[in-house]
Amino acid sequence: MDNEKDMSAVNVVNDGRSRMEQIEYWLTNNFWFHYKWYFIVGVFAITLLIMVVVGVASKIEYDWTVIYAHSGAADEASVKDIEGIMKDILPETGDNRRVSVKVIEMADTSDGVMAAYGEQRLYSHLNDQNIMLFVMDKGQLDTFTTLGYFEDAVEMKAMPGLYCATNDSPVEYLSCEDPRYCDFPQDFLDEVYLEYVAEHEEFMAAAKAALTQLG
Fold this sequence. Notes:
Number of strands: 5
Distance between the termini: 81 Å
Order of helices and strands: HHEHEHEHEEH
Number of domains: 2
Strand content: 5-15%
Structural class: alpha/beta
Oligomer: single chain
C-alpha cells in the first residue's frame, strides 16, 4: 500500500515540473508524512553513536598517576616539568606505545577549609593501591614520613627542593562476603587477587627503579 502511495505521489507531480520540484514534492507530501518519526529517531541514534565513539576515542588511559603535593600557591610550570620528567623514565604499560602520565597537583595554601580538604584528598591518594609515586616539598615529605608513609625518597636532581617518594599501599583483598563481589565464587576471586598482586608488584618495582634515575 505504501508503494502505491509513493507512485501516486510521483504521478501527480508529473505535470511539467522539474526533477528537483518532483523530489521536493515527494519529500514534503509523502516521505515526511509517513516516515518523519523513523527519520527523527534515526538521526538521534546516529548522533548519539557519534558522540559515544568520539568520547571513547578522546579518552586518555594514563599509564601512571603522580601526586604533586606542596605548600603555597598552585604551580602549573612545575606540574608540566614533572610530567615531562616522568614520561622519560617510567615504562609504558598500555597498548598505545607511549608513556602517559597524569600529574595531580595538591597545593596546601593553609587557608582553612581548602587546606583541610586538600589534606583529606591526599590521604585518599596515599591509600590508593594504584598510586605509587609522590612528588613533594621537604615539609610535606617530613610530615607524611613521620606518619608512616613512604618507603623510599630521593631529592630530584632535575628539580632541587622537590622529593620523589614511593608509597606501597596494599592491594585490596577480594572476598565473596563483600556485596560488590558476592556473585563470584571465592576461588575465582582469589585467582583475580593474585593477578592484581603480581601486577602491583611489577608496577612497584618500576616505581622504585624510577627513583634511582631521579636522584
